[in-house]
Amino acid sequence: MDHIKELSALIDARSKEFTELSDRIWGFAESRFQEFQSSKLDAAYLESQGFKVKLGVADEDTALVAEYGSGHPIIGFLGEYDALSGLSQQADVAEHCPIEAGCDGHGCGHNLLGTADLAAAVAIKEMMEQGKLKGTVRFYGCPAEENAAGKAFMVRAGLFDDVDICLTWHPGWLNQVNGNGSLANIRVFYTFHGLSSHAAGAPHLGRSALDAVELMDVGVNYMREHMIDEARIHYAIINTGGTAPNVVQSEAQVLYAIRAPRVSQVMELFDRVSDCARGAALMTQTKVDIRQVSACYDCIGNDVIAERFMKNMDALLPIEYTDEEIEYARKFQEAITDLDKVSLKNAAKRIAGKDAAKLLEQPIWNFRVPGYVKSGGSTDVGNVSWVVPTAQFGMATLAAGTPGHAWQVVAQGKGSVAHKGMLAAAKVLAATAYDFYTDEKLIEAAKEELAQRLDGEQVPDALPKDLKPEIW
């Protein structure tokens, strides 16, 4: 327990620096592969702390690796700093009020996520400087977690090949440890090319790319009955071919997100969705280009690491909040939708049972949720987990019930509740890393567990070899 107090003191001593870093990244609000200011800010800070920093790795201009120390164990912290499109929002305002309509915002809290991982890395570095730990600490600045799976390219480039353990967390409204599994996910553009013509004067000469998109979507929607229940397929028509109905659309484009519990299942669904596209092209006498742009793998959980997360979270919770912070959270809880309030009630029943009503009176849930929680979303942390023992936990930075990927997350991202959650997460990360630095048997056990979970299955090859990171 002494090491937890010592690491906490190291992080608290720099808390002002870390909250300022997080707030500046919140203000940059840069989306996938465009996190130029955010990555440079982190790189400069880490260099000032004595880390060796490489910026622009794995063909990603905004990816970085910062390292201190030498030899094994090598423990990596997975940081992120990308924002979400169209979620601009003023801080601390409990109603939808964009700073600039249509601009980006940190609707998933990655300004907090990356900064906590950075803070943990700095605290471990300081312990190494004092001669209390041996090995290497590594901070990975990972761009484009949202939609484009920046870590996939970093894994492919071999940046994790020598790492012993990887740790990370995610902001939210629950203090929880993630279990095995998240949905694997690939994203694919289908672009149809037809022939333009006058829709009234010479419709027989036209071949509509928009018709092809619509027929493809109908085919995929019929396919839903014949795929596993856990799979998810979403699409957005990116280009309808124009706004003139009297012109046959010669080009149209649709973006698909295909998800399933295992990456092998996603790859199978990808083939079936692509067959729907080819069939639509055949029916409309158009041509289709199929371009995959990302691949998120499912997360391979690790109980050895997760149990250490639990131990250290229990040592650091509850967080002390002021009356003003409680009322701040209550204000935002009142701003969620009725559907979100139903979800909140269901979560309270699941966690607290007959005491759900008492739990719902608390605008911040200041305890660790028992057991493991399985994610229903997708993350490129999964790609790392296939090659390195990896685990992730959640820490409360938001009012209970706050929906993810929403303006309410952005609005709370610079508040003191968020800052306290971020710093607590940094302490859990640092304390967990300490456990593995000081116990070689824990590392061996984590590696054995990964091997057992994979059971001989090879790392998937779902990312096209010629695919480069790109802004799309």
Topology:
Elements: H1 2-13, H2 15-28, H3 36-48, E1 52-55, E2 64-69, E3 74-80, H4 110-129, E4 136-142, H5 150-156, E5 165-172, E6 175-178, E7 184-193, H6 209-223, E8 232-239, E9 251-260, H7 263-284, E10 287-296, H8 303-316, H9 323-333, H10 338-352, H11 356-360, E11 368-373, H12 381-385, E12 390-396, H13 407-412, H14 416-437, H15 440-454
Parallel strand pairs: 3-4, 3-5, 5-12, 6-11
Antiparallel strand pairs: 1-2, 2-4, 6-12, 7-9, 7-10, 8-9
Give your account of this protein's structure.
With about 475 residues, the chain is of the alpha/beta class. Helix content is about 40%, strand content about 20%. The protein contains 15 helices and 12 strands. It has helices spanning about 1-15, 15-30, 35-50, 110-130, 150-155, 210-225, 265-285, 305-315, 325-335, 340-350, 355-360, 380-385, 405-410, 415-435, 440-455, and strands at about 50-55, 65-70, 75-80, 135-140, 165-170, 175-180, 185-195, 230-240, 250-260, 285-295, 370-375, 390-395. An 8-stranded mixed beta sheet has the order 1-2-4-3-5-12-6-11, sandwiched between helices. A 4-stranded antiparallel beta sheet has the order 8-9-7-10. The protein is globular and about 80 Å long. The mean pLDDT is about 95.
